[in-house]
Design a protein that fits this description.
39% helix, mainly alpha, 1 helix, 49 residues
Length: 49
């Protein structure tokens, strides 16, 4: 199921990590990102951009 990852020469692979502060849950972060995406989509999505 899991195997090695091969990256072509000259490519860069970035890993995004989140370190939660005490008393902050993943669900808190998930909700904040969802709200941000909703605002951006409502402002710039569709015919507006």
């Amino acid at each position: 199921m899991f195997g090695p990852i091969t990256v072509p020469f000259g490519a860069k692979m970035l890993f995004n990590t989140v370190r939660l502060k005490p008393h902050v849950t993943f669900e808190d972060v998930e909700m904040a990102v969802g709200e941000l995406c909703s605002v951006v989509k409502g402002t710039y999505g569709g015919d507006e951009g």
